[in-house]
Amino acid sequence: MSHTHTPTRRNFLSLSSRLAALGLGSLAFSRGTSVYAADVVQQDPVTDYKALVCIYLFGGNDGNNVIVPLESAQLTKYQTIRGGLALTGGKLLPPIAGPNNTEYALHYGLTELNDLYATGKLAFVLNTGLLQRPITRTEYQAGGSAPTNLFSHSDQTVQALTGVPTTDGTGWGGRLLDCWGNTDTLSAISLASPSLFLQGKNVGGNAIPPGVTLNLNGMSFWPSNEAAVRQQALNTLLTQDGGNVLRATANKSMSNGLHLAQTLQSASGSGPTGFPGTPIGRQLQEVARLIDIRAQQGPGRQVFFVAHDGFDTHGGQDWQHWYLLSNLSQSLAYFHNVIGGLGHGDKVTAFTQSEFGRTLQPSGSGSDHAWGNHLLVLGGAVQGGVYGAMPEFTLGGPNDANNRGVWIPTISTAQVGATLGRWFGATESNIALAFPTLETFTTSDLGFMNLA
Fold first, then answer.
1. What are phi and psi of 93, to 5 degrees?
2. Does a structural domain hold residue 144?
């Protein structure tokens, strides 16, 4: 199994230091454009404001221990196969209700989210993952259509962010923003390193790590009128590309960064406070601030990318997973409450994503790379509940790609993205173009979003 280092704040700050040597200071980094096979059709301007927040769990989150079925036979199978990794007793929170009188229990690190479930604004979507089309165990083992390079961190991260089972393309968050053509500099924001998820054909994301001041070195000096002259000279240079495509792209990127810096510096106040001081807490605090800034400007769309790292739990999973899920639960619940307090509750939807799940059968004190996974969706417009079906907990059974509990997804990333995209305001034709594998599935709306 291959392993790669995921983007970190350190990587971004290293990039910032290199930009500083060129006089760019902590200017936001904008990606260039890329080409996707099918272009979405530009829609009419929106008349309201909405935001999507992708919280990416880098490393492959163990969904098997996020939400556990309490039906007696399933629970027995789960605990027998999981062995020392199984959640029992006090490591299972009080039951939550699923459809058809079913009950589930969440990991004991998710206390705050367990409480939020009762509000009807939290949904769990079971056994999701990258699929070209529905596939059975027999078809998979016979070499049927499946994503390329399964179980590889790097390849499956790219495919999760593009929403298609290939190794390149645009991100599905960026493709949704493409529906409305030109967008402003606050439309696509990564709170970690630049993310493929935000890259559309026409939209390129900006990266704004929390706590980084956006400014341009060499522009803050006395007298102020001389600084203004220097600024105007730079602006003039940025309009001159001489027909050079590379120079024009670089100029556009820098111009966008300057505009973004001015927008943020002109915003009053430091934004919401009281968030946990963890990396994910600081990222979500910045997301809340940027949402409030942009929502006050009027109709528009925003897509955010938040990175939560450390889920590659091959060993020491018990404590590590609790620590990571506790940070997620505390920060995400606080974010949800803050957004509601700011009056944007039904306009913001947050969801988790990860490159793959992990094997039900443990490997020592950890678990290995797998495929299908469970994700959560939280927001004021969410129809709370449990969606989809748990796999059958049988090694080598109909839901197992091999013999270790590698779940073949029964809900595709395209179906999840289409459900969110429909709430976001994308037309049916654009949803079909943004998620080209969607046509192979019978259901394109999973029902966890309130479209009213």
1. -75, 165
2. yes
Task: Write out the H or E segment, with its range, that includes residue 412.
Answer: strand 411-412
Kindly state the helix (H) or strand (E) to which residue 331 belongs, with its residue range: helix 317-341
Q: In the 8-state DSSP scheme, what is residue 441?
A: S
Residue 162 lies in a domain: yes
Q: At what angle do helices 279-295 and 317-341 cross, to 10 degrees?
A: 20
Please check whether residue 174 is in contact with residue 205, taking contact to mean a CB–CB distance below 8 angstroms: yes
In a domain, 2, yes or no: no
Q: Angle at the Cα of 187 (from 183 to 188), degrees rounded to 5?
A: 120
CATH for 331: 3.40.720
Range(s) of the domain holding residue 244: 9-440
Distance of alpha carbon 188 from alpha carbon 434, whole angstroms: 16
**Average pLDDT by consecutive 10-residue portion of the chain (452 residues)?**
39 36 35 49 94 98 98 98 97 97 98 98 98 97 93 96 84 95 88 93 88 68 72 73 69 68 67 96 97 95 98 98 98 98 98 98 97 98 98 98 98 98 97 95 97 86
Q: For residue 445, is it within any domain?
A: no
Residue 260: phi, psi to the nearest 5? Answer: -60, -45
Type of residue numbered 224: S
Contact 406, 371 (CB under 8 A): yes
Q: Determine how many CB atoms are found less than 10 A away from the CB of residue 394.
A: 14
pTM: 0.88
Burial group, residue 259, by CB count within 10 angstroms (0-12, 13-18, 19+): middle
- How far apart CA 307 and CA 196 sit, in angstroms, is 12
Length of the chain: 452
Q: Which amino acid is present at 179?
A: C
190 pairs with which residues across the strands? 207, 305
Cα end-to-end span (Å), the chain: 45
The structural domain count of the chain equals 1
